[in-house]
């Protein structure tokens, strides 16, 4: 268990991000603040467009600028404000200390290079002192549950299934030994059985390596039993956050209540699907 009195591994303070075009300004993230201790797991929950992924990408300044502009805020990682670092120094953190796994592994992997080449490239950048990159890469592929790592090492992304591609992405993150793994909707493009396997793999990685995990998801059904804490985003703002069990057992904000009510349950039949009253929620948000 993470030490609650320790200095946070990640601390985000009053982060606001806009997307600027000639026609208008979109306030994608507005005054977001949260922190994570080393070894913890935080789930960020909300619908598409709520600001989850924009927040996650901003941690390592991966948003294209323009059109993205960080209006205000600080992102401290191990005590260093990443938003003030020069680009050259920031490369040390991208992949090396903060690694990302995205929802579409087929678009994240380069189709013209083998899995082995791409793993070696990541190690060359973030672990240049490593003597035998092939052995380290094979070990990483084995750690993520790939049964024939030698064959996978030689394969190209199109020769692998979606679940295998996602395991390769996780292996690529693991081989660089980051302190924080950002998993942005890592199971969305996968079928239900493979989703469960990927989530179990992430649990094992957290336990084995003491790695912190920031899980981005729209599905409250994935959060229970996985995350220590949860924060809920709506219209670019955090509307609720707290220990996962407490939020699930007694959600306070109407948006959180609506999201939980939308989760389908086995053995439960409804004549009508649960819907979200956005007009009411927007009115509440404007009053806060």
Automatic annotation (TrEMBL):
GO terms for cellular component: plasma membrane. It is a peripheral membrane protein. It is found in: Cell inner membrane. Transmembrane segments: none annotated. Residues 10-260 form the ABC transporter domain. SUPFAM superfamilies: P-loop containing nucleoside triphosphate hydrolases. One of its GO terms (biological process) is peptide transport. Gene3D superfamilies: P-loop containing nucleotide triphosphate hydrolases (3.40.50.300). One of its GO terms (molecular function) is ATP binding. Keywords: ATP-binding, Cell membrane, Membrane, Nucleotide-binding, Transport. Belongs to the ABC transporter superfamily. This is Oligopeptide transport ATP-binding protein OppD. It comes from Methylacidimicrobium cyclopophantes. The lineage of its organism: Bacteria, Pseudomonadati, Verrucomicrobiota, Methylacidimicrobium.
């Amino acid at each position: 268990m993470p030490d609650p009195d320790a200095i946070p591994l990640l601390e985000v303070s009053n982060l606001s991000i806009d997307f600027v075009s000639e026609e208008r300004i979109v306030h994608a993230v507005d005054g977001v603040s949260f922190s994570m201790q080393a070894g913890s797991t935080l789930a960020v929950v909300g619908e598409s467009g709520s600001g989850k992924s924009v927040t996650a990408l901003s941690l390592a300044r991966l948003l294209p600028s323009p059109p993205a502009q960080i209006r205000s805020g600080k992102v401290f990682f191990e005590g260093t404000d990443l938003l003030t670092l020069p680009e050259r120094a920031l490369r040390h953190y991208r992949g090396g200390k903060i690694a990302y796994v995205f929802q579409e592994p087929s678009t994240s992997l380069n189709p013209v290079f083998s899995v082995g080449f791409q793993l070696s490239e990541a190690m060359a950048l973030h672990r240049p002192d490593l003597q035998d990159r092939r052995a380290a890469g094979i070990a990483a592929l084995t750690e993520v549950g790939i049964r024939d790592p030698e064959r996978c090492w030689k394969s190209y992304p199109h020769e692998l299934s979606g679940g295998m591609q996602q395991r390769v992405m996780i292996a690529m993150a693991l081989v660089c030994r980051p302190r924080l793994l950002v998993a942005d909707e890592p199971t969305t493009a996968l079928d239900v059985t493979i989703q469960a396997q990927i989530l179990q793999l992430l649990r094992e990685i957290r336990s084995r390596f003491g790695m912190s995990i920031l899980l981005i998801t729209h599905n409250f059904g994935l959060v229970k039993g996985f995350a220590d804490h949860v924060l809920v985003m709506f219209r670019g703002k955090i509307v609720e956050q707290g220990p996962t069990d407490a939020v699930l057992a007694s959600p306070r904000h109407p948006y959180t209540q609506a999201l939980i009510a939308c989760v389908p349950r086995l053995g439960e039949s409804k004549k009508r699907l649960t819907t979200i009253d956005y007009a009411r929620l927007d009115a509440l948000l404007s009053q806060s």
